[in-house]
Amino acid sequence: MRRIWIAAAALLLGGCGIAESGVSDEGPAPTGVAPGTTLYFVDGDGELRATLRDTGRLGTIGEAMALLLWGPGDSGLDTGIAVVSSSKVEVTVGEQEIELRVPLSAEEVSPLGVDQIVCTALAAHVQSGGSPEATVRIHFTLGEPGSDAPRTCPLIG
Amino acid sequence: MRRRLPLRGLRARLIVAFALVTMLGAGAASWASAESASEALVESDQRRLTEAFAERIAAVAPTLSYPPDQATLDRLRAAVGADASVVFEDLRSADGEDTGLVTDELRRAVRERERLVAQRITADGRPLLLIGAPVMITEPDGTRRPSGIEVYAVRDLGEVEAQIDDLAASAIGTAALALPLAAVVALLAAGSVLRPVRKLRDTARRLADGDLDARSAPLGADELAQLTVTVNEMAESLQGSMSAMRRMQADAKRFAADVSHELRTPLTTLTAVAEVLEDAAERMEDDAAESARLAVTEIHRLVRLVEDLMEVSRFDSGTVRPRLEDVDAVEAVRDALRARGWLGRVELSGPAGIALRADRRRLDVVVANLVGNALRHGGPPVRVRLAASDSQVRIEVADRGPGLPDHVLPHVFERFYKADDARARTPGSGLGLAIALENARLHGGDITAENTEGGGARFMLRLPRNPEES
Fold first, then answer.
1. Could A32 and B64 be called an inter-chain contact, meaning their C-beta atoms sit closer than 8 Å?
2. Is A54 a member of any domain?
3. pLDDT under 70: residue ranges of chain A
């Protein structure tokens, strides 16, 4: 009889409070640090190539876009994007889609230039913890038919 | 070791057992639900805290310079919130006392698993959640490697614990609520179990009191019903053997009565023959005369035996009624002694004028039997003493003989009981004391036998002064 009482008391007391636990897994670790921003330009062979712009930090997609529109500088690389006075790009990051409003018309960007924009945006998105499956939709100031279709980067994903 | 519980009654034990089981059941059920609820609470709280932790790091990470300096670590630590610490190689930024509580186990897991991890601990009685994560560097192609930055935070779970305590309290409350309900149900259940038991007990008591017709109807088909059936069967067989015994007893008594009645007629003839034989014996030769006298003695004895038997039969049949009249006790005893010529051999004492209502003939029979026995078997002097109280007359017959052997004493009033075989030839029928006792009882009185201290037997006849009153 006494044993039953002890068991019942232990059972009731065990129900109170929060039990200690071992180390439990709570998901993927946060990410987002990087020594610089990855930008995509075109090399001498006309191929898309990733370069690291030494900014000391990863930065946002908008910042990466600004650096991209600024041009390759004296790195010996080329760009398929026309030089514009404004480098301000409006970025909207959705669940599976990144929308960019660039201060360019579709005419001012070559097909490689479009890839440059898509890859740079996607790289910044992935490096800051975003999904590699995300697509990029570019809205030009003056579009062409199909110019705002969802796109993916040929070098990523 | 085992204590004697004060709960001896079946009802009390049933109720206590029932209430205990119910309490235990309700307690277990509410405990289980409280337990799972509290587990869910803790889980969701833990998830909320770790997600917020990871989100805050992820939000600030792209703006952090890499490799980080002390200022960068401070910024990250501030973004994570209070009680956090950030480590990078030799650099360290910490805030709050609790950051020292982070366990080595958690640090090792952060390094080895390269994932967001958490651990619940209790420090100074406070429930705490430790969260740790490395900050990763992700390449554009999705591959990840640790940056060397580790972030730890300590979060208080006291609020959740308070909620869980509330849950436990309500669980106990629910179990307590079940108690009165259980008691009521137990009371009803106990009643339904105990009612047939009580009925059975009443039946058994009636049987014990002699009412062999008592039965109780079995209800249902449980063990109690089986017990009831068994008790009924027992009563049935008891009743059967009792009535068989009574029938046999009645048969035996009737047989004795019939036999003695049938013997009377030939005995009357035989008595007449005996008288003739007695007269003739004087003219016979010595041997023949001796035989004739012996035959006459035995005939007289036979007559007395048959008369006693018939008297006993009348008592057995319950048809005897005393013819009560006013009697002076001492005179009645003296008359009985005088009639048998015993006055000279017996010392009679007692106050004159003891009024008594009794059957004179039967009183005579009793006195004659007691005194006759004393004269025959006891030693002189034989004393008869009378005494009276308001309600009772005592007639004591005592002798100074050897007294009655101890093994005989309890049986002296039994029919045909012979103290020893040597006495088989005494002239008594063996029914004298039995008839005397029956006569005393007929008056509502009694006779007891005992040995006196000075030796000798003493028979005490007690008669109520008026049997019709008592």
1. yes
2. yes
3. 1-2, 7-17, 157
